[in-house]
Amino acid sequence: MGWLTWQAQDNGFFWDNILLASKYGQWYYQTRFSTLFVPEELAGYPPLFGMYIAAGWHLCGKSLPVSHFLMLPFLLGIVWQVYLLVQRFVASRVWLMLGMLLVFLDPTLLAQSTQVAPDLALLFLYLICLNALLRHQSLPLATALVCMALLSPRSQLLLPAVYLTQLFLQWQESKTISFQIFIRNSKVYLPAAFLLCLWLGLHYWHYGWVGFSRTSDWGEYAAFVSPTGFLRNVGLIGWRLLDFGRIALWFTAAVLLWHYRKHLSSSTQQLLVLLLVPLITQSLVLVWFTNPIAHRYWLIIYVLLGILTTHLLEQMVRLRVKQAIYLVLVVSLLSGHFWLYPPKIAKGWDATLAHWPYFELRREMLAYLDQRQIKWSQVGSDFPNLAAPADTDLASDRRQLSAKDFATQPYILYSNVLNSFTDQELEALQRHWVVVHELSSGQVFMRLYAKR
């Protein structure tokens, strides 16, 4: 993990982390923690992660490398927590190492591990909760829950998932759940529940809303979906779970579960609870809203899927067969970084390492604009390419490209990393615009168009 962080240290803030890490961190850094509340155009997220980044900058200096190395404690913590989990469900030391390899080869986990992302902190905290539940340790559980209450909206959403997981695990052990168990379990969740209610109350008192402001840039994502949108969300969740090579793991796990269905061990049943509860909990909330469903939302599911598949493979008797299956799974996950969809199908660029060339290509293209004395305000583009270098690279340059407007702008800067160009806009670029400069590396390209 340290090597991966070293390789990524010059990569800029990417995708939602431009807001959640860079803009939040810079606000608390510049205000020196004098207020909990960020400007309303940024608001909607708890303060913990932004404050952590700002504190790291105060201690070690404000730079991209420092930002990346601030994620290293979470990455090492994830490795340790995964080790504890795999050790519990895999008997032999060989399959323990193979299981950990299968987990950390997941393309989305690898991609997120190279970014300054609160999702890594969430994964670390949720894994602490799972190990604490399995080991009946109240203090680590309560501490992780408190941090989750102040980390992000999705970490708050997963608090009930932890509680439900505990109930199902206890039901597996004793085959009964009493009122006394409900009360006893609830005590460890009270500090997190108190802080969550306190934060939401303070947020509402200051801004007059919680969750999403209808006037914000992302307020439209708080709307309820139509029946068609509901079905689309169900399909998207399935796609995210199967995408980038994970389909091989799901297929293998499903076949082996069917094969062992009459003799499922208590360990297998425990693993199914750990995997299914957060999957169902998140899905039951996300399917109702227009909020985009990203690959990174399911990091904990990817980890548990890798552990479950390894656990089931180890039980196979025929050594050569399970070795061959394992090799196929490894190749399938590695192939995920090379999955490239047609131009009109949005790809989760922050979910594989395929996005890495974007950072250098963007810097080169912006330098080309300066060289040709093209004003950035004359160039239209889209998220996440609209952020200023001050927010993506922690530079002093606060210039920004403009939101694309084909009717008024003489230039359009398009990259296949940008998912917000409509099919009609892509067709218009082909018919009525000409490429004046193009850069490419790996799967990523960046094209500057001018009107014909």
Task: Please give the structural blueprint.
Layout: H1 2-8, H2 17-31, H3 48-60, H4 64-69, H5 72-89, H6 93-104, H7 107-113, H8 118-135, H9 138-149, H10 153-157, H11 159-174, H12 179-187, H13 190-207, H14 227-242, H15 247-259, H16 266-286, H17 299-314, H18 319-335, H19 357-371, E1 379-381, H20 389-392, E2 402-403, E3 411-415, H21 423-432, E4 433-441, E5 444-451
Parallel strand pairs: 1-2, 1-3
Antiparallel strand pairs: 3-5, 4-5
Summarize the structure.
The protein is mostly helical. 59% of the residues lie in helices and 6% in strands. The protein folds into 2 domains: 2-338, no CATH class; 356-451, no CATH class.
Overview of this protein structure:
- The chain crosses the membrane at residues 66-86, 93-110, 116-134, 188-207, 237-259, 271-289, 295-313, 325-342.
- This is Glycosyltransferase RgtA/B/C/D-like domain-containing protein.
- The chain is mainly α and 452 residues long.
- It folds into two domains: 2-338, no CATH class; 356-451, no CATH class.
- Helices cover 59% and strands 6% of the residues.
- The chain has 21 helices and five strands.
- The protein has helices spanning 2-8, 17-31, 48-60, 64-69, 72-89, 93-104, 107-113, 118-135, 138-149, 153-157, 159-174, 179-187, 190-207, 227-242, 247-259, 266-286, 299-314, 319-335, 357-371, 389-392, 423-432; strands spanning 379-381, 402-403, 411-415, 433-441, 444-451.
- A five-stranded mixed β-sheet has the order 2-1-3-5-4.
- Helix 5 packs parallel to helix 17 (299-314).
- It is globular, with a radius of gyration of 23 Å.
- The model has no long low-confidence stretch (mean pLDDT 94).
